[in-house]
TrEMBL record:
Residues 21-261 form the GSCFA domain. One of its GO terms (molecular function) is hydrolase activity, acting on ester bonds. Gene3D superfamilies: SGNH hydrolase. This is GSCFA domain-containing protein.
Length: 319
């Protein structure tokens, strides 16, 4: 007997393996998946400019690095004793303006190279709700705790999101024609916007994204959709799979969604390597009651042999 609804998944034509170079962009759920890629030692870069939730702000970053537009003083502002940029997450805010600009421009240069060399880009959209700076009329990625009266809140239309996603694809392909896309909608509910408003927001993302994906399919490039939101809502429809805020997936849910992802988007050979790496990671975290014992020294010797074998096979992997 089956007591839950399983979301059907088809294996991708262009799976990730240990020779792949992956870039993960988007919401906090993108970070959850990227942490799994990091744990299993795939070559992965995550949100170089920090977490970004809405499609237009992701597009703006891609457009900036594609055009190689440097960040200048007009792109930053001073608030609460730190310099910020509305297009960038507050993780990069800095008390020194020049240092902030240098950091952002270095990241932009690096991201161009990463996108040019990547085999896969995973993009996770979180919300259709955006904040627009009333002074500049620009959509911001982060408000940086600037008073809310300086912004207007809007719901992006399906047409605007669709155009933004298409632009993101076109700009990325202009840098790297052979890159593979994996899109997903974050399972995190943004109930601060309201429950009905959150559903409306997600529905705009779903409609726009699937309209775009309908137009993109070839034997060389696959534009994939991974149903992380649907898995959370249908396969894991129980609050025991949520964190304390009852909004974010907890570690069990993340592990399960990762399992569903890896079964369909990672090669079978790589799944075997993942198992070896997981054993090494667990062994590295092991703490012996008697570190000087002969048994523990043998354990460490075998562990180093396993590590050496993996690192020789995949030079980019370091433990």
């Amino acid at each position: 007997m089956q007591f839950r609804t399983l979301i059907p998944l088809s294996k991708t034509n262009n799976p990730i393996d240990y020779n792949s170079k992956v870039i993960s962009l988007g919401s906090c759920f993108a970070v959850n998946m990227a942490e799994k890629l990091d744990y299993f030692k795939f070559e992965n870069h995550t949100n170089p400019f920090g977490i970004i939730f809405n499609p237009v702000s992701i597009e703006k970053i891609i457009k900036r690095v594609f055009k190689q537009e440097l960040f200048t003083e007009k792109d930053v502002f001073f608030h609460n004793e730190r310099w910020h940029c509305f297009d960038i997450h507050s993780d990069w805010s800095n008390s020194d303006k020049q240092e902030l600009l240098e950091n952002l421009n270095q990241i932009a240069k690096t991201l161009v190279q990463q996108l040019s060399n990547a085999t896969h880009v995973i993009i996770t959209y979180g919300t259709s709700w955006i904040y627009r700076n009333t002074e500049s009329s620009e959509i911001v990625a982060n408000c940086h705790k600037v008073p809310q009266k300086q912004f207007s809140k809007e719901l992006l239309s399906v047409e605007t999101i669709q155009k933004s996603i298409q632009n993101t694809i076109d700009l990325t392909q202009a840098l790297n024609p052979s890159i593979n896309f994996i899109f997903t909608i974050s399972p995190v509910r943004h109930v601060k916007d309201g429950f009905a408003e959150n559903q409306l927001s997600k529905s705009h993302l779903f409609t726009a994204l699937h309209q775009v994906l309908k137009t993109h399919n070839s034997q060389f490039i696959t534009h994939n959709y991974f149903p992380s939101y649907e898995i959370m809502m249908d396969e894991l429809r129980d609050y025991r799979f949520y964190g304390e805020d009852m909004l974010h997936p907890n570690p069990i849910a993340i592990d399960y969604i990762w399992q569903r992802f890896s079964e369909n988007y990672i090669t079978e050979d790589s799944l075997l390597t993942m198992k070896e790496i997981s054993e090494i990671q667990k062994a590295l975290n092991h703490r012996s009651f008697n570190p000087d014992s002969e048994q523990h020294l043998k354990f460490l010797s075998k562990l180093q042999q396993k590590i050496k074998s993996i690192e020789e096979k995949f030079p980019h992997i370091k433990f």
